[in-house]
Amino acid sequence: MSDLDTARLADWLAPLLPTAPTALTLDKFPGGQSNPTYRMTVDGQAYVLRRRPFGDLLPSAHAVDREHRLISALSSAGFPVPRPFALCRNEGVIGAEFYVMEMVEGRTFWNGALPDLSPDERRQGYEAMVDALAALHTLDYEALDLGDFGRPGNYFERQVSRWTKQYRAAQTDDLPDVEALIEFLPRTIPQQTRTSIIHGDYRIDNLIYAPDAMTVRAVLDWELATLGDPLADFAYMAMNWILPADGRSGLNGTDFAATGIPTLDQITRRYCAQTGRDDLPDLHWYFAFNLFRLVGIIQGVKKRMQSGNASNAKAAETVAMLAPLAQEACREARLAGADF
């Protein structure tokens, strides 16, 4: 079922299709806390509709027009994303800005342990995940007319500031661990040596794999994408190797030799080989930052949940991760040299 006006949506789609829609249905996808996403079926043809949440939102959040612009550029470059169909800025159609894109059929894996696959399939799946990220980071963003998609320098300085402001704007409690991070991160920012398109939320459940092979057919959920330091993306993905294996994307505690899942060292070497790096710096600061940013995102979910505007019925389960993630971020900060 849908909470949207399908009649108005059909009227908006009519000029964009060979014939006016006669049957249109919308089914909201489960999962996700960002931009609500629907399977839209028009006369038997499946599409995906992605909209901004309803209600009051933080100023820079949920910019679906940016997502549409980016996937249009990436699709033109042959990078695996759903092909965009149309963008609607008129909130009068369904109550919020939205865009429509191709429905990519395939497999989504919610459990990073990939329990139903063979060791070879697990290895291939993670190698394909690393390969897609390396391909993204080596795209020429200027050639794709994305030179203004984000400011190319001082990425972590801007991001620490941004997520501090986002956290403050959505703050509901006083968490000493978060306050310690807000003090530590800005004064210890590492030097940025490269700039690329970065996804911002790169993890296995944001990928669609082919139905019959461990190849990546599409990378989804570009809400947090910008130009920035590619180490932010790599470290965010690599965090899964330090977070506990809990049936989600975490892998810490996995028997890598037995399962076939590559180790953190193995994926690091593969990423470096494909991006022309000799090695990566110590990742503890980057882990602390990414965990802090995740705290900021979840704090936004908590604020929306309290206002009755969260996009997922499991919002409370997500919000329960807030304090533990802040504690883990502090642990990584201490490994990076913090004295708290």
Model description:
- The longest helix is centred in the C-terminal third of the chain and has 23 residues, at 284-306.
- Strand 7 and strand 8 (216-219) form a beta hairpin.
- This protein has two domains: 6-102, Phosphorylase Kinase, domain 1 (2-Layer Sandwich); 119-335, Aminoglycoside 3'-phosphotransferase, Chain: A, domain 2, CATH 3.90.1200.10.
- The protein contains eleven helices and nine strands.
- With 340 residues, the protein is α+β, with helices and mostly antiparallel strands.
Task: Give a brief rundown of this model.
The protein is an alpha+beta fold. The chain is built from 11 helices and 9 strands.
Key phrases:
5-stranded antiparallel sheet; alpha+beta; 340 residues; globular; two-stranded antiparallel ribbon; Aminoglycoside 3'-phosphotransferase, Chain: A, domain 2; 2 domains; Phosphorylase Kinase, domain 1
How is the secondary structure organized here?
Elements: H1 6-13, E1 24-28, E2 37-42, E3 45-51, H2 64-76, E4 84-88, E5 98-102, H3 119-137, H4 155-170, H5 176-184, E6 196-198, E7 207-209, E8 216-219, E9 226-228, H6 230-238, H7 256-259, H8 264-275, H9 284-306, H10 315-319, H11 322-335
